[in-house]
Amino acid sequence: MSKLHNIKNWTRQKLREWMAEKSTTNFKVKEFRADQVFYWLYTQQVGSFSEMNNIGRETRKILEENFWISSLEKAEKQQSQDGSIKYRLLLDDGLSIESVFMPHTSHNTVCVSSQVGCGMGCDFCMTGTMGLVRNLNTAEIIDQVLTVLKDQPEGEKIRNIVFMGMGEPFHNYQNLMQALEILTDEHGFNFSQRRITVSTSGLLPKIRRFGEEKIKANLAISLNGVTDNVRSKLMPVNIPYNLEKLIKVCREFPLESRRRITFEYILIRDLTDSIKDAKGLISLLHGMKFKINLIPFNSVPGSKYLSPSQGQSRKFQKYLLDHGVVAPIRISKGQDIQGACGQLVIGAKA
Ligand code: SAH
Ligand code: SF4
Hints:
By secondary structure, the chain is α/β, with parallel strands linked by helices. The protein folds into two domains: 5-68, DNA polymerase, domain 1 (Orthogonal Bundle), CATH 1.10.150.530; 73-337, Aldolase class I (TIM Barrel). It is built from eleven helices and 13 strands. It has helices at residues 12-22, 33-43, 57-66, 126-129, 138-150, 173-183, 204-211, 228-234, 243-252, 275-285, 310-322; strands at residues 5-6, 67-68, 73-79, 85-90, 96-102, 109-111, 115-117, 132-135, 160-163, 196-200, 218-222, 261-267, 290-296. The protein has a nine-stranded mixed β-sheet with strand order 3-4-5-6-9-10-11-12-13, with helices on one face. The longest helix has 13 residues, at 138-150. The protein is elongated and about 70 Å long. The two termini are 21 Å apart. The structure holds S-adenosyl-L-homocysteine and iron/sulfur cluster. S-adenosyl-L-homocysteine binds at residues 118, 124-125, 164, 168, 199-201, 222, 224, 264, 266, 295, 297-298, 300, 332, 341-342.
């Protein structure tokens, strides 16, 4: 198998070029076959080349000699009381990752991982305690969406894809961008760019680069603190890329019309949940096109931080509202199955 390429790591463009090259031999592989292959892989989600029945036998043979089609095995599936489903998916090398399906009448969402573990070391985050085990390849990112979709009752659609599972997506930039290119490809999954959100802890050079990409997915920033003091304690990334620099890059970020940057802000008792913090948040983001999601800290076993009281979360939210900022409190889905944000932690060899 090792000599073969996993076809889901290849963009349609790359496949077209490869096919054009193949055509110089005694048999002509036509470039548009790449479009058909994409249709079969991502619209029909077939698992073998033999099922691609509008592609000639010769071409299918060439494909089989050079490629294989991956899929992810569902190792575990846990359903939460709130309806969300956490999957543990097995990778080829025995490691596993987690993806979460979050149902909603109008906008089912899949939360995907970009790495096994994460190297950013945020102090409040369970995934962070694993360290970085490895990057996911493009196919492993795409296969999460396909596996979760396939497991839903027929007719269920996925409206949003959020990169808020395990890992720092901008630490795995190239594979992430290829995955976005394939997921949004009109000949394949044809997912809307507006419905994909990539969340970063704040890797500034990559945020800038992301703004220049042809693919315009949404940007979310895990802010979590409004002073360098607090933010650096929570998120080591704030040491090289402090708040002043982060906010400057966000202000300069090119936004399509009617788009905003999402800021995720964790409310931690007595650390980030005071009215002074709410005030700080408003002045930090003043004048920007933004949305804020308030996330009450999920208590995790052994964590040194505490969840805020409901009353304090409401007060914080009300202060923002009184100053013209609507900020929903996102009660993380799947808390009872440890499937909520920042609670994804696994990855040891099975
Ligand atoms: N690594 C990226 C994306 C994944 S983290 C990032 O940090 O943006 C997804 C979100 O979960 C982040 O906004 C993070 O701040 C939040 N999070 C992590 N641990 C949490 C916890 N224990 N309680 C609540 N939110 C948490
Ligand atoms: Fe990594 Fe995001 Fe967790 Fe920080 S919050 S350790 S960047 S997954």
